[in-house]
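Extended Data, panel c. Modelled sequence:
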Amino acid sequence: MSVNGDFVRVASVDEVTEGQPKAVRVEGRSVALFQHRGRYYATDNQCPHMGYPLTRGIVRDGVLTCDWHGYSYDLGGGGCFTGGCDDLDTYPVEVRDGEIHIDVGSGGSRPDDAHFLLLEEGLNNGDSWTLSKAIAILLARGVSEGETLEKLVRHMGRYAATQLDARQAGNEVALFVNGLAVARRYEPEERLIPLMMAATAASGRAGDRPPLRALPGVAEGDTVPYDKLAGWVRYFSEDKMWEGIEKCLLTLRGQGGHDDDIPPLLFECAVAPHFIAVRDNLRNLGYLMELLDEFGWETSEELVCNTAAKMLGRGRGVPGDLLREAMDLFEETPIPDDPDEASGEFDEAAFVDGLVSGNVRTTFDAVTRALKEGAGVEQLATSMVMLAADRMARTPVGMSPGWGDLAWEMSLASAVRTVNRRAGAGAARRALYHAAWQFFDDRWLNIPQRRLEAEAASGNGTAPGEEDAALERIVEAIESIQVRRIGRMTRDYLNGGHDGDRLLRELGLVILSDDNGWDLLHTLRTVFDEWERCAGHPARNQLLVGLSRWAADTRRRIGSQSAAATAQRFARGETAVELYE
């Protein structure tokens, strides 16, 4: 090579003939040289789709087509003809005295916002690979994470409002929030998969809808009183009229001054008796409020008002006999009205025995009795989380282990804390009965009950200094699907005094690298949170034992790690080209 101004000599014309392209290295990148109809062209050698070398492609009529997936580009300008892909970098070419010179210093022909355009493409078509690649490159180029996430939230607002029902919208919000929360538990280079999951939740066709306006006041310049609007929200929720709820919420927002009153009002509706068996409402409303806390009303208004309205005004069907009995019991139960910070002694063993008694009256009575004994909401939420974790750690895997239902036990118990924080102890006490119903509803699970504190003394432990080896064995046991061994190995690791925080991070990486990471993401996020909150409880280790067992039992060998690795290579400028040169 020789340098002449900004141009670099890369080959002689004899080396590049029609139909016989040549790859050259210039400033650390692979560049493809083509001759087509007497002209010479230079492009990035990696296909912007998945990095396959374009020197293996075909040129016809000025169109360069990659041989792997058929993505096509304008050979001269680099424009992509295929949806879901970035444009191709092309470089100026000069022929001087039979020598080909190219200028790569210009940085290629793509516009500066090319990867934002790629992100928008992924959001509209819902393709996780396109989203992975766009996010990886944006992060590698130092684009603000906040700016990228705001784009996702705004897009998700219109997508949910025009395409999704209450269950779908709530579940997408949960996936977005939990993907983001889990990503922030890891270093930037380890965040791509959970961020891709979050972006996928936000993606989908965003349709049009008429502009929504606030209700007019009773007279010009007047406003609709808050008490009247709040009463209408409660009425529309009970009567399954979500459009009315959305209109009232937008009116509260438009009139101003009541932003802080809206979350408690929403939770008040969510803990009503008719929602007892609608388990996703309580959990997903909490995630929706978490999203609101981070992004604010200006960014998330459409998403929050529309999704909350659909959730609280959704159809509920006719309850069966047992559910009707539970709803009647809930309405008749005198819920103790103690101070917000109640934290007295209570009989935890009797409480958890009642929860899994298989009798709905006994289950609800266990909650009422614990509250009367002076237990605080946070105490009872912790006991419920630990009970769910213990059941997950001990559920038989020979038949149906009930992983999904056990995960709901844990997430609803954890959601009670969100209600307590956002709506106060009164609403949170009612939320306890909703969480208790899940334990009753899981009476089909064949998990013998025992005292939670019995777990603290079990296990033989491992010798000091073996933490690294023990951790490697746990990861290998999950990857090789050793379901019947992984629980004991996890217990031994923890009872040996090894680092539980480190184990949890490694479990997360194993889960995220697998296709079933989508199924475990919500539980992974809950375990991250509850591992910190439940420090000191004797059954705490069961959180990690249960998580490791589920991860092993649902393990498949087709994962998302390869796509993530490819996206990260794109971000670093390293692609599949290196495998072929």
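The first helix runs from residue 114 to 125. This feature is highlighted in the accompanying rendering.
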